[in-house]
Design goal:
Elements: H1 3-37, H2 43-69, H3 80-90, H4 99-119, H5 123-142, H6 148-151, H7 153-164, H8 177-181, H9 194-200, H10 205-216, H11 220-224
This protein binds zinc ion (2 copies).
Length: 225
Protein backbone atom coordinates (compact mmCIF):
# COMPACT_ATOMS: atom_id res chain seq x y z
CA UNK A 1 0.00 0.00 0.00
CA UNK A 2 1.18 3.52 -0.84
CA UNK A 3 2.91 5.10 2.20
CA UNK A 4 0.91 8.34 1.83
CA UNK A 5 -2.44 6.50 1.76
CA UNK A 6 -1.28 4.41 4.72
CA UNK A 7 -0.43 7.52 6.72
CA UNK A 8 -3.79 9.10 5.90
CA UNK A 9 -5.59 5.92 6.91
CA UNK A 10 -3.70 5.80 10.21
CA UNK A 11 -4.48 9.44 10.95
CA UNK A 12 -8.19 8.90 10.28
CA UNK A 13 -8.22 5.84 12.53
CA UNK A 14 -6.53 7.83 15.33
CA UNK A 15 -9.00 10.72 14.95
CA UNK A 16 -11.99 8.37 15.10
CA UNK A 17 -10.55 6.57 18.10
CA UNK A 18 -9.88 9.82 19.99
CA UNK A 19 -13.45 10.95 19.30
CA UNK A 20 -14.76 7.68 20.78
CA UNK A 21 -12.65 8.22 23.94
CA UNK A 22 -13.95 11.77 24.32
CA UNK A 23 -17.59 10.65 23.95
CA UNK A 24 -17.05 7.87 26.50
CA UNK A 25 -15.36 10.19 29.01
CA UNK A 26 -18.46 12.38 29.45
CA UNK A 27 -20.76 9.76 31.01
CA UNK A 28 -17.79 7.98 32.65
CA UNK A 29 -16.75 11.09 34.63
CA UNK A 30 -20.36 11.76 35.59
CA UNK A 31 -20.80 8.21 36.93
CA UNK A 32 -17.42 8.36 38.72
CA UNK A 33 -18.28 11.70 40.36
CA UNK A 34 -21.69 10.35 41.46
CA UNK A 35 -20.06 7.24 42.94
CA UNK A 36 -17.53 9.33 44.90
CA UNK A 37 -20.05 11.95 46.09
CA UNK A 38 -22.57 9.50 47.54
CA UNK A 39 -19.87 7.45 49.29
CA UNK A 40 -20.49 9.19 52.63
CA UNK A 41 -24.27 8.77 52.56
CA UNK A 42 -24.55 5.32 51.01
CA UNK A 43 -21.27 3.34 50.82
CA UNK A 44 -22.86 0.25 49.23
CA UNK A 45 -24.66 2.23 46.54
CA UNK A 46 -21.37 3.99 45.84
CA UNK A 47 -19.69 0.58 45.44
CA UNK A 48 -22.47 -0.59 43.09
CA UNK A 49 -22.07 2.55 40.94
CA UNK A 50 -18.28 2.14 40.76
CA UNK A 51 -18.70 -1.56 39.90
CA UNK A 52 -21.08 -0.56 37.08
CA UNK A 53 -18.52 1.99 35.83
CA UNK A 54 -15.81 -0.69 35.75
CA UNK A 55 -18.07 -2.97 33.73
CA UNK A 56 -19.11 -0.12 31.40
CA UNK A 57 -15.43 0.69 30.81
CA UNK A 58 -14.82 -2.92 29.74
CA UNK A 59 -17.74 -2.84 27.25
CA UNK A 60 -16.22 0.32 25.75
CA UNK A 61 -12.72 -1.15 25.59
CA UNK A 62 -14.14 -4.33 24.03
CA UNK A 63 -15.60 -2.16 21.26
CA UNK A 64 -12.43 -0.08 20.79
CA UNK A 65 -10.12 -3.12 20.75
CA UNK A 66 -12.28 -4.96 18.24
CA UNK A 67 -12.84 -1.99 15.95
CA UNK A 68 -9.48 -0.23 16.01
CA UNK A 69 -6.93 -2.86 17.07
CA UNK A 70 -8.22 -6.15 15.69
CA UNK A 71 -9.57 -4.61 12.47
CA UNK A 72 -6.78 -2.12 11.94
CA UNK A 73 -6.58 -1.74 8.17
CA UNK A 74 -3.38 0.29 8.35
CA UNK A 75 -1.48 -2.19 10.57
CA UNK A 76 0.87 -4.97 9.55
CA UNK A 77 -0.86 -8.32 9.08
CA UNK A 78 1.78 -10.05 11.23
CA UNK A 79 0.56 -8.45 14.48
CA UNK A 80 -0.63 -11.34 16.72
CA UNK A 81 -3.96 -9.76 17.80
CA UNK A 82 -4.75 -8.93 14.20
CA UNK A 83 -3.79 -12.27 12.66
CA UNK A 84 -5.53 -14.26 15.44
CA UNK A 85 -8.67 -12.29 14.82
CA UNK A 86 -8.46 -12.66 11.05
CA UNK A 87 -8.10 -16.40 11.56
CA UNK A 88 -11.25 -16.43 13.70
CA UNK A 89 -13.10 -14.58 10.94
CA UNK A 90 -12.16 -17.17 8.32
CA UNK A 91 -12.74 -20.07 10.78
CA UNK A 92 -15.75 -18.91 12.87
CA UNK A 93 -16.10 -22.21 14.74
CA UNK A 94 -12.52 -22.12 16.03
CA UNK A 95 -11.72 -20.15 19.18
CA UNK A 96 -8.24 -19.94 20.71
CA UNK A 97 -9.57 -19.66 24.29
CA UNK A 98 -10.14 -23.16 25.67
CA UNK A 99 -12.43 -24.42 28.46
CA UNK A 100 -9.47 -24.69 30.88
CA UNK A 101 -8.59 -21.04 30.18
CA UNK A 102 -12.18 -20.11 30.95
CA UNK A 103 -12.12 -22.09 34.21
CA UNK A 104 -8.97 -20.25 35.34
CA UNK A 105 -10.53 -16.91 34.39
CA UNK A 106 -13.73 -17.80 36.27
CA UNK A 107 -11.89 -18.78 39.49
CA UNK A 108 -9.79 -15.59 39.24
CA UNK A 109 -13.03 -13.62 38.80
CA UNK A 110 -14.58 -15.13 41.93
CA UNK A 111 -11.42 -14.28 43.93
CA UNK A 112 -11.44 -10.70 42.59
CA UNK A 113 -15.12 -10.21 43.50
CA UNK A 114 -14.57 -11.59 47.03
CA UNK A 115 -11.50 -9.33 47.46
CA UNK A 116 -13.45 -6.30 46.22
CA UNK A 117 -16.27 -6.94 48.72
CA UNK A 118 -13.72 -7.40 51.53
CA UNK A 119 -11.63 -4.33 50.63
CA UNK A 120 -14.67 -2.09 50.03
CA UNK A 121 -12.65 0.57 48.19
CA UNK A 122 -11.82 1.64 44.62
CA UNK A 123 -10.68 -1.90 43.80
CA UNK A 124 -14.37 -2.44 42.96
CA UNK A 125 -13.72 -0.55 39.70
CA UNK A 126 -11.30 -3.27 38.61
CA UNK A 127 -13.73 -5.99 39.77
CA UNK A 128 -16.43 -4.52 37.48
CA UNK A 129 -13.95 -4.28 34.62
CA UNK A 130 -12.84 -7.88 35.11
CA UNK A 131 -16.44 -9.09 35.22
CA UNK A 132 -16.96 -7.39 31.85
CA UNK A 133 -13.93 -9.18 30.45
CA UNK A 134 -15.16 -12.49 31.89
CA UNK A 135 -18.63 -11.97 30.37
CA UNK A 136 -16.95 -11.32 27.03
CA UNK A 137 -14.93 -14.56 27.06
CA UNK A 138 -18.06 -16.59 27.88
CA UNK A 139 -20.40 -14.61 25.62
CA UNK A 140 -18.16 -15.06 22.59
CA UNK A 141 -18.21 -18.85 22.89
CA UNK A 142 -22.00 -18.81 23.51
CA UNK A 143 -22.50 -16.70 20.36
CA UNK A 144 -20.86 -19.49 18.36
CA UNK A 145 -23.40 -22.03 19.64
CA UNK A 146 -26.78 -22.54 18.01
CA UNK A 147 -28.73 -22.18 21.26
CA UNK A 148 -27.58 -18.56 21.50
CA UNK A 149 -30.55 -17.92 19.20
CA UNK A 150 -32.87 -18.59 22.16
CA UNK A 151 -30.94 -16.70 24.85
CA UNK A 152 -29.31 -13.80 22.97
CA UNK A 153 -30.98 -13.45 19.54
CA UNK A 154 -29.96 -9.83 18.96
CA UNK A 155 -26.35 -10.31 20.03
CA UNK A 156 -26.15 -13.43 17.86
CA UNK A 157 -27.51 -11.56 14.84
CA UNK A 158 -25.00 -8.78 15.48
CA UNK A 159 -22.10 -11.23 15.66
CA UNK A 160 -23.15 -13.19 12.56
CA UNK A 161 -23.42 -9.94 10.62
CA UNK A 162 -19.96 -8.89 11.78
CA UNK A 163 -18.45 -12.26 10.83
CA UNK A 164 -20.13 -12.80 7.51
CA UNK A 165 -21.43 -9.58 6.02
CA UNK A 166 -20.28 -6.32 7.64
CA UNK A 167 -16.75 -6.83 8.95
CA UNK A 168 -16.44 -3.05 9.35
CA UNK A 169 -19.58 -2.89 11.54
CA UNK A 170 -21.20 -4.64 14.55
CA UNK A 171 -18.09 -4.74 16.77
CA UNK A 172 -19.90 -5.16 20.10
CA UNK A 173 -19.98 -8.71 21.50
CA UNK A 174 -21.53 -8.36 24.97
CA UNK A 175 -23.45 -5.14 24.23
CA UNK A 176 -24.47 -3.40 21.02
CA UNK A 177 -25.00 0.16 22.23
CA UNK A 178 -21.47 1.37 21.36
CA UNK A 179 -22.14 0.37 17.74
CA UNK A 180 -25.32 2.45 17.88
CA UNK A 181 -23.59 5.44 19.52
CA UNK A 182 -20.59 5.42 17.17
CA UNK A 183 -22.57 4.65 14.00
CA UNK A 184 -21.26 1.15 13.24
CA UNK A 185 -24.56 -0.77 13.45
CA UNK A 186 -25.68 -2.88 10.50
CA UNK A 187 -28.64 -1.70 8.38
CA UNK A 188 -31.83 -2.60 10.26
CA UNK A 189 -33.58 -4.20 7.30
CA UNK A 190 -30.76 -6.63 6.48
CA UNK A 191 -31.87 -10.27 6.56
CA UNK A 192 -29.31 -13.04 7.11
CA UNK A 193 -29.69 -15.92 4.66
CA UNK A 194 -29.74 -19.61 5.72
CA UNK A 195 -26.55 -20.17 3.72
CA UNK A 196 -24.70 -17.55 5.77
CA UNK A 197 -26.02 -19.00 9.05
CA UNK A 198 -24.86 -22.49 7.98
CA UNK A 199 -21.38 -21.17 7.17
CA UNK A 200 -21.19 -19.34 10.50
CA UNK A 201 -22.02 -22.49 12.47
CA UNK A 202 -19.55 -24.53 10.41
CA UNK A 203 -22.22 -26.55 8.64
CA UNK A 204 -20.63 -27.67 5.41
CA UNK A 205 -22.65 -29.19 2.57
CA UNK A 206 -21.40 -32.66 3.60
CA UNK A 207 -22.59 -32.18 7.19
CA UNK A 208 -26.00 -31.02 5.98
CA UNK A 209 -26.24 -34.07 3.69
CA UNK A 210 -25.31 -36.34 6.61
CA UNK A 211 -28.24 -34.87 8.56
CA UNK A 212 -30.57 -35.58 5.63
CA UNK A 213 -29.32 -39.20 5.52
CA UNK A 214 -29.94 -39.47 9.25
CA UNK A 215 -33.47 -38.12 8.88
CA UNK A 216 -34.21 -40.47 6.01
CA UNK A 217 -32.54 -43.30 7.98
CA UNK A 218 -30.49 -44.42 5.00
CA UNK A 219 -26.75 -44.68 4.46
CA UNK A 220 -24.94 -42.23 2.16
CA UNK A 221 -24.08 -45.10 -0.22
CA UNK A 222 -27.76 -46.02 -0.69
CA UNK A 223 -28.60 -42.37 -1.21
CA UNK A 224 -25.83 -41.87 -3.77
CA UNK A 225 -26.78 -45.02 -5.70
ZN1 LIG B 1 -13.95 -8.95 14.03
ZN1 LIG C 1 -16.73 -14.66 16.76
Amino acid sequence: MNIYILMQLRLKQIQRQVLCYLIFMLPAFFILATGIMIKKFSPWLSQAILFFLGWLTWTFLEYIAHRFWMHNKSAQREKPALSNHQYHHTHPTELKVTNSHRCILLVTGILIIISAIYLHNYFILFAGFYLGFLSYTFMHVILHRKWAKILFPRLLQNHILHHCKFTNKCFGVTVTWWDKIFGTSAPRSYQISEKVISYYFGETLEKREEKIYEKLKISPQVYNN
